[in-house]
Design a protein that fits this description.
- The chain has helices spanning 7-32, 44-48, 67-74, 77-80, 96-101, 112-120, 167-175, 194-197, 211-217, 230-233, 246-251, 253-272, 274-282, 292-306, 321-333, 343-346, 349-354; strands at 52-57, 83-88, 107-111, 125-130, 137-142, 157-160, 185-188, 204-207, 225-229, 240-245.
- With 355 residues, it is an alpha/beta fold.
- The longest helix is centred in the first third of the chain and has 26 residues, at 7-32.
- It is globular and about 65 Å long.
- It starts with 6 loop residues before the first helix and ends with a helix.
Length: 355
């Protein structure tokens, strides 16, 4: 007579088998399902892969204007995305668009108006994220010069940065009835304000986050300056934008998404931890070229441009239709571009959508 297995024993065995099957199924589900959280980019598969090299070209020298990029590198946000970033400083003679098109760098921080001008000239470039949402540009003159209206700038020496940063100044002149080629002396402005201090310029270009404070910190009082605001003049255009070569984005879409995601995360961190990030930036500035106090002021002003009032963290880096269109309209109206900008082609919105 065969020994009868107790019913409870069968139940236990069945329970064990079911548990094992369920565990295997659960393991399979975890390994194959995408992680919806931000940490998805740091999966074990990504961690085991070698870091991908990426070069980002700055439009100027190391400073808090690029705090988000420096923060993203220092805090490991790029590394978390599997990226080894090389931050390439800019300067008055660096043309960002050429660097990007020639393949010397993968991404570049340029001005949105400059992107439109260079696209109009046939360069296959796109913006993958809009860093600043407002214009920072001002023109400054000393009250002692008597230049208190745009009309009085005629036949005067007007300083501006060249390369890819002069277009708002040109539009300002056109808006006020001055031909930049005939009515003014356009002078290449260096990355210090020495020409302005030494009266080599009658009018200088300044950003509200940098050169304006350089002038004040030198001892010049606000009441001794005439300040011309591009917003007031109706020629304010979008500035810092992250650009790439179109075919590079097509071939490296996932890398572009990761780079933009890390960069915008860096900017949000910089805005929320300004004191810490100023210290990070100070590690990269040229010795003796600036002070921590100045960089603190710069980041404070940049934060207002990157995340203006009413913006959420999710909107940082986004393209605001009204601002984009205004920039394109001004560029066309004042002859910076010859034909209406194809904004659908100029913006690769798929990068931010995937972010």
């Amino acid at each position: 007579m065969k020994k009868r297995i107790p019913t409870v024993g069968v139940a236990v065995l069945l329970s064990i088998v079911v548990s094992l099957v369920s565990a295997c199924a659960s393991e399979k589900s975890v390994s194959m399902s995408p992680d919806p959280s931000p940490a998805a980019s740091t999966s074990s598969a990504t961690k085991n892969e070698p870091l991908k090299k990426l070069k980002i070209q700055l439009k100027w020298v190391p400073q808090a204007q690029f705090a988000g990029i420096y923060a993203a590198k220092e805090k490991g946000f790029y590394k978390d995305e599997g990226i080894d970033v090389d931050i390439v400083p800019g300067g008055p003679d660096v043309i960002i668009e050429q660097q990007v098109v020639n393949g010397a760098v993968d991404l570049g921080v340029s001005s949105f108006d400059s992107l439109l001008v260079n696209r109009d000239n046939g360069l296959p470039l796109v913006s993958v994220a809009q860093v600043t949402q407002k214009s920072s540009y001002r023109l400054l003159s000393k009250k002692s010069t008597g230049i208190d209206t745009p009309a009085k700038m005629k036949d005067k020496k007007i300083g501006t940065w060249m390369g890819s940063q002069q277009f708002q100044v040109l539009a300002f002149m056109e808006k006020n009835g001055l031909d930049p080629k005939k009515d003014i002396q356009l002078v290449k402005q260096g990355f210090t304000m020495d020409q302005f201090f030494g009266d080599q310029l009658d009018v200088a270009t300044a950003t509200i986050y940098n050169e304006y404070y350089v002038v004040l910190e030198s001892g010049v009082k606000e009441e001794d300056l005439n300040v011309f605001n591009f917003d007031d003049a109706g020629v304010a255009m979008l500035e810092d934008t992250l650009i790439a070569k179109k075919d590079w984005v097509d071939k490296n879409h996932d890398l572009a998404v990761k780079a933009v995601r890390a960069t915008m995360k860096g900017w949000i961190y910089a805005i929320e931890h300004q004191d810490e990030v100023v210290d990070i930036v100070m590690k990269s500035v040229t010795a003796g070229s600036t002070t921590k106090q100045h960089q603190t002021t710069m980041l404070k002003e940049m934060a207002k441009l990157v995340k203006p009032e009413g913006f959420t963290n999710d909107q940082v880096g986004s393209f605001v239709d009204e601002s984009v269109k205004r920039t394109a309209d001004i560029a066309l109206q004042y002859g910076l571009i010859k034909k209406p900008a194809d904004l659908k082609a100029a913006l690769d919105t798929t990068i931010l959508a995937a972010k």
